[in-house]
Every structure is written in structure tokens, then in C-alpha cells.
Amino acid sequence: MPTGLYTGTGVSHPFTRHTLEFELPVSASTAANKRNPDKVKLKETILALHERGWSYRQIGREVGLHWTRVGQILRNMAHD
Hints:
The protein has helices at about 30-35, 40-50, 55-65, 65-80. It is mainly α and about 80 residues long. It has a domain at about 25-80.
């Protein structure tokens, strides 16, 4: 009866799940929280730039968000 993963060798595979070590990528939400920890200030900045006539894309580049997220934030602020 074979004892390892390699049939007849008696040797288990050297790269089993518990021995692999690698860094997990930082999630997008964690990265965004690090970039903009103060959400109230972020929203105020977005609103101020929008009132100055900046486009969603310009605002997005300035604050580090995708331009569609800038639009979502502005729409949500209009509904509140």
C-alpha cells in the first residue's frame, strides 16, 4: 500500500497546504480605508471640488477614488 502522494515512492508532496507561506493581497476596501480614514472629510472634499466645477474624473484622481464612486457619493449625498 503506498504511503505518500507519489504512488509507490513513500514520499509525501513537499508543498502541502500548511507549509506554503505567502502574503495575501490587501483588499480594495482596506486600501481605501488607509487612503481616506476620515469619510466625513472625504465627502466634504468631494462636494467642495464638485461645487468648484471639477469633473468626476478630476475629483477621483485628486482623492484616489474611481470616478464612478465619486458619482455614487455625490448622488447619495443629494438623497440625504
